[in-house]
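Cross-posting from the modeling subforum.

Setting up a comparison between two proteins and wanted a second pair of eyes on the formatting. Protein 1 (sequence, then structure tokens):
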Amino acid sequence: MSSASAPRLGYFGQPGSFSHVAALRRFPKVEMVAAPTVEEAFARLQSGELTQIVVPIENASSGIITNTADQLMRLARSDAAAADQIREALAMRIDLALMARPGTKEISRIYSHRAPFDHARDWLQKHYPKAEQIMVESTSEAAARAAQEKGAAAIAGVQSVEANGLAIISREVGRDVANQTTFVVVGTPVARTPKATHTCLVFELPHVAGSLVAVLQVLSRRKLNLTKILSRPIPGRFEEYRFMIEIAGAASMPVVTEALAKLKKRTTFLAVIGSYPVRKI
């Protein structure tokens, strides 16, 4: 394979982010580039600069990552939807640490992504109630900022410690609650992907009473388990929403194929944005 056609994978955040760790575990031999925001990762994918991207979709504590969901919904409405789809979901345990410059005695501000702040809320209230909490795009950016500022700390993965010359202040950040993040691989097909187990749909509904119930009944009657659901406002259409759902079952299964045919009649827009395996890494 020539370098021009070689896979080029992007990941959300800076080197050392959890998306980077997930990408390395799944694709250890693929060329990778960082994308500071989820939006930029999708933009590079759709421009053809990248063949796949790894971005977070759900955290056990903070729920669905809306940045990613919004981009997937936009993708569903674009011409690229047929080519760039969810190819795999990667579930990874997340171990957080509080870190700061070596020798730091007092911490006045703490940087992190929204998900770690949500996960560690009780721990932070107990141990650092007066520290200012500053939300940034990624945990890797948080670590980079903590490395530059006196009196600052970051909640990030331990992989960010050495890369930024930081010291671990505590490994107990939210450890009393199990923490896991699911990432999605979006883009062109991935070689040697296991058999699909889940399917993700994006749809819009008639603006009438009972339209969402009708969709859920289609799934319920066929005993298709709903594993994710999110609604987002449709720009320019007041009080109307676009939905993204994930169901357990491959799109190729007869029961799912039958459900999709029924859903087509009950929605004003319907797109399958991936049928894929969920892998623990």
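Protein 2 (same layout):
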Amino acid sequence: MKALFLVDHHEDKLQIKETAQLSPLEGQVLVRIKAAALNRRDQWIRQGMYPGIQFETILGSDGAGVVEAVGAGVEGSWIGKEVILNPNMNWGENPAVQAADYHILGMPTHGTFAEYLVVNERQLFEKPAHLSFEQAAALPLGGLTAYRSVFHHGKVGEGKTVLISGMGGGVAQFAFQFAMAAGARVYVTSGQVSKLEKAKEMGAAGGFNYKSEGWQKEAIKVSGGFDCVIDSAGGDQLNDFIKMMRPAGRIVFYGATNGMPSKLDVFRMFWNQITIQGSTMGNDQEFADMVAFLAEHKIEPKVDSVRPFDQIVSAFDDMRDGKVFGKLVIRI
């Protein structure tokens, strides 16, 4: 079978190679991957900016396909079913936080950028009927990260006012769709006017260009303040968010691309009972809940483009350069 490997090469760390196909062991299944999606995590691994780098690993955390074979102890009824894959590996027994040996498909365990993949039975979920393979492949990592941020930590529900920062990234778009489906009034930020316009077309109550001076005051004036902010970057903009929060508001961040804030307005935080909460991907039960929520509300992941497997490296480049709105999906 062909697969995309991380290799130790001076020109590029990505290479499509032929490799032996595995057979499922006890408790495992063999999935014929129909589509897989890129995440920024994959590009960070390519650039060596991720812990525990292991060369000769097949990358990819998101995938959807058809079960072709099962190992001992697995119900044969899985064979032929269309499935999406939970990328969690070893979350552990505590639903509040992942275990020390937790990791994600695609590093160090072989991932979804391959024609076939062997996974544990518990990682299988039937593909929602309203989704194509390409749409389903776009869901797992970004969707699960957004679901935990929005509901577990953000407590978003009907009537809440929410701000999603960095609209354009996969997690941000899922957070937007989930919050909208929950009945919240949702605003977004982006540094690109075109992405703000697309968000409004999707139902956003408003959008703010964070490159514009004074956007923070405009956001407070227009929205009346936020019950929840879902953020991907951290850094000094956390202080902007603190000023925008309603009493008992929650700021949930799932990334720190802007690094540490140089200071933090703790006085405003304690007086207004504001919570700043870090978040990661969700646990296995949250993955099941997310799939059910998406099926109930007929949510369709936003796909920027679908490309053949031999164009996967150029897809990495476009993601790196910020040229996408929605998920980049590879048809395998």
